[in-house]
Amino acid sequence: MKYLRLLLILVLLGSCSKNSYQISKKTYNKETKKLGKSLREIKQDTINNRITNVIKSQNFNLRKPNLIVIHHTAQDSCKQTYKTFALKRTQVSSHYVICNDGTITQMLNDLLRGWHAGGGSWGKNTDINSASIGIELDNDGSEPFSYAQINSLVFLLQKLTEKYKIPSQNIVGHADIAPGRKTDPSALFPWKALADSGLGIWYDEENLDTVVLPLNFNTTFALKYIGYNTTNLKNAIYSFKLRFNSEEVSHELTEKDKKILFLLMNEI
Ligand SMILES: [Zn+2]
């Protein structure tokens, strides 16, 4: 009897999440239809009635993403993540979710503006959601990333960077674009392995022992040059170390960090 009740609860929970996916699908279709309709309009009065003339050109296509942001979900399962992104009240979403077993699920068309980045910047780009594709990795932030998951991520990154001609330095972590606010993906994320597959930047490790820093080497400029927002320098340093020197994460730059920074500038 006890088991029967448990089974009933599980069945109900299953149908409940399926139901929320159905609602999400319906809203997705309705909203994309509305967006399509809005693309057909060119309003004449957008800037104080100064636009008085409309002549429609026939030469265009949709704008393309130019940045990829990698996250970890900090949730317990892929199912929980799907539900979070399908529910309207959460106001968050991502284009792709990759589970621990390597399963890839797409939740938004690449050309739609997802709500995964929040406030942040990379270089001069201050509207990350408009420019980027969000990829969420099912990971609680304290466990290692599985081989199957990274394998799927490499496949997806290769496909997307090729399709949209996204430069290597524009494959970033959430922590990179939001220093002080975000720390995902965690220090366990294999950035070097990714760079070995030609995805994202890494420094020339062979030169680390021999490189000599210029006397006037400006580390803040170097961080900025790579893309970090240095308004709060200590937070920028923390995000930089989380990615490029994850065994010694702190808010201070060591001699090794400075050399890494210098070598990274050659990769851009
Ligand atoms: Zn994130």
Number of contiguous helices? 9
CATH architecture of the largest domain: 3-Layer(aba) Sandwich
Mean pLDDT: 93
> Mind telling me the C-alpha Rg?
22 Å
What structural class do helix, strand and pairing data support?
alpha/beta
Bound molecules: zinc ion
CATH homologous superfamily grouping of the largest domain: Peptidoglycan recognition protein-like
Contiguous runs where pLDDT drops below 50 for at least 5 residues: none
Strand content of the residues, in percent? 5-15%
Strand order of the largest sheet: 3-2-4-1-5
CATH topology of the largest domain: Lysozyme-like
Could you characterize the architecture of this molecule?
The protein is α/β, with parallel strands linked by helices and 268 residues long. It has two domains: 62-200, 3-Layer(aba) Sandwich (Lysozyme-like); 205-265, no CATH class. The protein has nine helices and five strands. It has helices at residues 2-39, 78-86, 128-131, 147-164, 174-177, 191-196, 219-226, 233-244, 255-265, and strands spanning 67-72, 96-98, 104-106, 132-137, 171-173. The chain has a five-stranded mixed β-sheet with strand order 3-2-4-1-5, with helices on both faces. A hairpin with a 5-residue loop joins strand 2 and strand 3. It is globular and about 60 Å long. It starts with a helix and ends with a helix. 29% of the residues are buried. The model has no long low-confidence stretch (mean pLDDT 93). The structure holds zinc ion. The site of zinc ion has 4 residues, from loops.
